[in-house]
Amino acid sequence: MTSARRRILLVEDDAGIREGISDCLVLEGYEVDSAANGAEALARLRAVARPGLILLDLVMPVMNGAQLLALLRREPGLADIPVVLMTAAMPPGPRLPPASGYLSKPFDLSELLGLVERHCGAPAGISGSSGVRQLT
After folding, report:
1. pLDDT tens digits along 101-119
2. What is the C-alpha separation between 73 and 99, in angstroms, rounded?
3. 3-state SS of the chain: helix, strand, coil percent to 5?
């Protein structure tokens, strides 16, 4: 059974990217739940076990990453969950919402795994490495 710390909520509107990231993380031994937008993620967070980390795309339809992050920071029980923002449209400097980390798409798998390991602990790797070099 996976500890809550090793559970990740992946919020990404692009199905291909969502599946690729999820597959890589699962191969590394993490438990991954996913959502296609901020509204879906918020519903999951209120209904299922608390994750140890949220990987959050910034630009999405329905509810974007900045809107979800603002709601999370005001909600007891969810406010202290680490959030790593992922985006291809990385605005400069202070326009990014405060987060536990940032990934600019496309990013190396090693960048992603480094941030995940920092927040969730070392991977319990089934394969040791997924072989993927870059995720877009």
Report:
1. 888 888 888 899 999 999 8
2. 10
3. 40, 20, 40
Contact present, 24 and 109 (Cβ < 8 Å):
yes
pLDDT at 125 over 80: no
Judging by beta carbons within 10 Å of its beta carbon (0-12, 13-18, 19+), is residue 46 exposed, middle or buried? exposed
- For the segment 18-25, the average pLDDT, to the nearest whole number, is 95
Q: Show me where the domains of the chain are located.
A: 4-130
Token duo for residue 54: 């949220």
Q: Return the SS3 of 114.
A: helix
* Cβ atoms 71, 41 nearer than 8 A: no
CA distance 132 to 108: 8
Identify the CATH class of 4-130: alpha beta
Phi, psi (degrees; rounded to nearest 5) at 3: -75, 160
* Cα separation, 110 vs 94, whole angstroms: 26
